[in-house]
Amino acid sequence: MTLKEISSRTFANHWKRKSPHDRFPPLTRLVVLKWRQFQVETLGGYRFRGQERDFVRRAYDGMGQDTFEVINGAQEWLNWRQIPMALRKRVPEEAALVLDLGCGPGSSTRILAWHGMPTWRILGMDFSEDLIRQARRSVEAGDFCTASGKQPIVEFVVGSVLEPFHDASGTLLADHTVDYVNSSGIVGHHLSAEGFTSLAAELRRVVKPHGFVALDSGPHLKEAVIRRTMERFGFVLRTKVRSVPLDPRPQLVFQSAGGQEPHA
Question: Cα angle at 220 between 232 and 49, to 5 degrees?
Fold first, then answer.
C-alpha cells in the first residue's frame, strides 16, 4: 500500500465514523453529537458513568461499537481539538514513547498518531477487553498513521490506570521512560480522588524528567483536585487546553519537576 493510499484510507475511516451532521458548523455539530448522546444515556437509560471500577468495566465490555460511537461522539469532537494543542512542541520528534490512557477502541490514539511522528511508539491502554480487541483490529487494518502517511508503532494493552503500567508483552514499563501521557475522558469522569492519587504516583514513576502529562478534568474529579494531587507528586501545571473558549472542562497539561516549557 502506498503512503497516499494509507493516508486516504485513514481519512476515509475517520470520516465514515462521523455523524452525517458534519455538514453543519463545528459548534452545531457538537450540539447534535450531545443530543445523540443524551438520547442513548438519558432517554435510553444506558448507564456507564461512575467511579466503581467493576460497574464501569462491565458497562464498556457490554457496549456495542455503534453505541460506543454515539456515546463517545462529543468526546471525540473535543479530542480532535484538545489533543493537538496539548501535544504542540512537547514531545521529541525522535523515538518518543507516548501513553494513551483509557484509549477505548483507539479513537484518541488515532489523533495522537495523526499529529505525531513515524518514529514514535504509542501504547494505548484500556481495561475493556472488547474495546482493546476493536483497537487491535484497527491496527491490523492500517488505520493509524501520521499526517504524512507514515505509520508509527501503535500497540494496545488491556490494563487499568489504577495498576502499574505494562506493555503488550506484559513487561512492566521501566522507570522514567515515557515522554508523554494523554488521558481524554477517563480521569475526570471515572476516577475518585483516592484512585487518582494512585495514578499520579505511577505517572511520577514512568514519566521522564521534563516529560508531559495531559489529563482531562470532569464532573467526578475537578480541576482543583487534579492540580493539587499532581503538584504533590512533583508535576507543574503548564497550561490548560480548551476545545472552545468557554469549555468548562479543559485538558490540564503538566510537566515533571524541573522541566522547562519548550521554546517556540
Answer: 135
C-alpha cell at 233: 507528586
Non-local CB neighbours of 210 within 8 Å, separated by 6+ positions: 255, 256, 258, 259, 260
**What gap in Å lies between CA 119 and CA 48, rounded to an integer?**
36
Q: What is the pLDDT of residues 186-206, one digit of tens each?
A: 897 778 899 999 999 999 999
Count CA within 13 A, CB hemisphere, residue 253.
Answer: 24
Instruction: Give the separation between CA 91 and CA 93, rounded to whole angstroms.
Output: 6
Q: What is the pLDDT of residues 106-158, one digit of tens each?
A: 989 999 999 999 999 999 999 888 889 999 999 999 999 999 999 999 999 99
Give me Rg for the CA atoms of the chain: 17
Residue 247 dihedral angles phi and psi, to the nearest 5°: -60, 120
CATH code of the domain in which 117 resides: 3.40.50.150
Q: How many domains does the chain have?
A: 1
CA distance 240 to 147: 25
pTM of this structure: 0.77
Range of the domain at 86: 78-256
Assigned domain for 44 exists: no
In this structure, are residues 39 and 185 in contact, taking their beta carbons and an 8 Å threshold? no
- Judge whether 192 lies within some domain: yes
Q: Which residue has the cell 479543559?
A: 250
